[in-house]
Amino acid sequence: MDTPLFGYYPFLRKYTEDKIDYYDEDPSFEDLYYTPNYELSAELNRDFDLTKNLIEKQIVTSDKTDTILAIPDIAQSMGQYEEDPDKRYAWRLLSDMMRTWICSSAQSSDHNNRHFLPVVNISSQWIFSHQIAEDALKKLASRNILFNYKAKEELKSILQRSGVWQRGGYFKFSDLKSHEFENWYLQRQSVSPATLFEPAPPNGLTIALDTFSLKALPKGFVSIGKKGERKIRIDGIDVYAYDTFNFDESNGSRFIPDFISNNLGYWSKNFKSFSPFPISCLYSDYIRLGNSDFNNFRRSYKKGGDFQVISDLRRLLFKKSEELILK
Known about the structure:
Elements: E1 22-24, H1 28-31, H2 42-56, H3 63-80, H4 85-103, E2 119-122, H5 124-127, H6 131-140, H7 143-146, H8 149-162, H9 164-167, E3 169-172, E4 187-191, H10 204-208, E5 212-224, E6 230-245, H11 258-261, E7 266-268, E8 273-275, E9 286-288, H12 291-301, E10 307-311, E11 314-326
Parallel strand pairs: 2-10
Antiparallel strand pairs: 1-11, 3-5, 4-5, 5-6, 6-10, 6-11, 7-8, 7-9
């Protein structure tokens, strides 16, 4: 689902002219170094403490329930002792997202209801401080992805739904609220950081998001010709990172053992620590958690609401506008 949505064909040879030259519309984007300065809101803390106390007072709990309830504190502790500012921000972000999930009424995401899920916002500067995200942006901003045949058809559909196809004029979908972006993006590109179980050391993206998408909102102008054809001028794209915070159990297959596909690492409530590897299970305090444990938690306690994760915008202008003729 996170590969380019409309007609990306890897067997086509990529020539130099496929690359679109662009620059940041907001020059301060690259000038400002994003310094993680993440603080949990007092309201969220109160809601979480109340929810946690209500669950702990129930007659039947388990080690896994106690560990799930401890994850926000574990993540915050991991961030507190992390020297790398990228990872420190990621652990604190994960702590907040887990508090949000636990406090929310039970709601699971699927492809039909994702547009209606609540939104948690994250920093695009943090996202693009990682080279893997910049590389994915370069792939997204290429003609063989943004302007192939099926993408043009999607662009036509977007413009028709917005009304600008019928009347002509300017369009810029990034002026909408962030929860509406999903209805108007043109194309997407997957970003897949190394997993916690790969030899490469994890970065902040691995800790907080894992695989997510970059999505492009087009901006430009529509002119209506004498024969009804539309001349579309694309001046640039506004890009946002998108993910859903959920615990999907459908990622595995008969080729991937459940131990791997349903493994979210080992967590210690007492040590306030995490390890991706089972070596830590030499200590009885470490509990292995998987996607199924969080879904069982949701069914048992009617808490655990999935949500959308959407960044603010990276605003890009093309050095030379792209012109398309659509009928």
